[in-house]
């Protein structure tokens, strides 16, 4: 086995949690080169993985929203780059039409994907020459199990993410100097996942009392309004400036504590082995939570909002206070 292409196109948290597949492959097949195909919006995560040889990306989401000529040209260029290498095997761990099309376009006679019942879009099955199952277990571990099953190697050890961020050129809102920084990721595109602003404010006030500098990131005008509401109830909490994905990742790496709902940047904090608490309101912690004592823990049952005390107890567990 000389070269493998992994396809996982979106989203941020899923791509973060899929990265251990790379270290598994390199352990199973010494000397293998692993490439990764992703949407341009999330490709930075794969670029941070020191075990990935080549990252292939295209503005798929951007083209869906803005059908402009420059986006189409970028996609065409990405296809040319994709076909520059020949692969021993292509593994699609996304399982929708767009990932299946990438698999077909890649130069390989062996293209593996999920069984029909496990696909996100069943029509994607046209792309594959071989199939593998999606096991009934924790989603992130399941991706590792699926690829190991597909390629016939034994899965060993805990997940290894191997993410190395570029060095920050300037202060990005969180530094390692005193006081320690706590980042509260309150925002999510899914309203059902949101935790009440009053709960966030209570946590922010308590963390301030403990000596943290509390900061609130945001990405859209709506999220900025929500952050401002939290800050109005916890005056010591500060809104971060507009930041890129890389800058937010660098802020996470510099922080002492990360608390947030089930969203991509909180999964990234876990992967970077930061002290992390993930709050579950409407999604399943058993299926897609984080749990790696002592540095990360999930709180909530996924059916209702956990209390402020639940969150503070979880913070105590990861931060030793």
Automatic annotation (TrEMBL):
InterPro entries: Glyco_trans_9 (IPR002201), LipoPS_heptosylTferase-I (IPR011908), LPS_LOS_Heptosyltrfase (IPR051199). It is found in: Cell inner membrane. Its EC number is 2.4.99.23. It catalyses: an alpha-Kdo-(2->4)-alpha-Kdo-(2->6)-lipid A + ADP-L-glycero-beta-D-manno-heptose = an L-alpha-D-Hep-(1->5)-[alpha-Kdo-(2->4)]-alpha-Kdo-(2->6)-lipid A + ADP + H(+). One of its GO terms (biological process) is lipopolysaccharide core region biosynthetic process. GO terms for molecular function: ADP-heptose-lipopolysaccharide heptosyltransferase activity. It is a peripheral membrane protein. Pathway: Bacterial outer membrane biogenesis; LPS core biosynthesis. The keyword Cell inner membrane applies. It is an enzyme of class 2 (transferase). Keywords: Cell inner membrane, Cell membrane, Glycosyltransferase, Lipopolysaccharide biosynthesis, Membrane, Transferase. GO terms for cellular component: cytosol; plasma membrane. Its main location: membrane. The keyword Metal-binding does not apply. Belongs to the glycosyltransferase 9 family. This is Lipopolysaccharide heptosyltransferase 1. The gene is waaC.
